[in-house]
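Now produce a polypeptide, keeping tokens residue-aligned:
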Amino acid sequence: MAMEIGLNLFSVFKELNEDYFGTLEKVAEMGYKNIELISANFATGERFTDTFSLPVIKKKFDDLGLKAFAAHEGVAPGKSLLDTDWDKIIEENAALGCESIVFPMAFISGREDTLQTAEQLNQLGEKCKEAGLGFYYHNHAHEFKRIGETSLFELLVENTDPENVKFELDIVWAVRGGYEPLALLEKLGSRCDMIHQKDLGKHVDTVNLFSASVQEDNADLMKLYTELVKPTDFVNLGTGIINFQETYQKLSELGSIRYAIVENEGQVGNKFTSIASDLQVMENNVIGYIKR
């Protein structure tokens, strides 16, 4: 299976806040073809689809040659996964051409809330399937906290329906959870055909965020991430710890990945320069990628 390169628009969320269409124009100009949407202006909390009409947004995508293949759609911390208008969200993203909805983060910390979350993911996955869309869960690091002989992530995998719920594995967040991402991908098989690619600085001392100190249930995860993850931890692709040539050779051999998605969370330098550099690294390493 040939991999497509994509860009998660969280990489340029500040720029989108200030100039949504101008940012999309710059993304397209540098050569990105596939984009993974974020739903809202993080400065105002307003959905972009409430600021601009769906036909206007879709026309802009088409004019720029951008394919919105997926969208990240979540809920605020402390709210139930089901506590939003998913029918509206699914309808809007389908109108924009999205093939899938990705749930970006569940604030789980123990067995019981993880099992409850798995059931809610099953319901959302079934709702998306009925509308003709795929449904994915996207990991951070906290899901890899161990509960006895297993992890919260493994509980999610084991207790969600493979027919309705797939996984979008974030390579570096898996590393930061103390797991080997390629081994995880082998286990997930066809349940993971989209990955997020970022890079972690060689200067980062604590790769495994949840190795010892963060084991209690009901942890304040947003506070922990603020304390444990530094703004300079993430760097441009190819400048950190990830061996891209080796990684993408193995991913090519695995053969299950459809989209390798750049997500640049670095906070140093010009973001447009960074994601342009990231695209070059991906084009140089994604085996079988043909630049259109």
Q: What stands out?
A: The chain is about 40% helix and 15% strand.
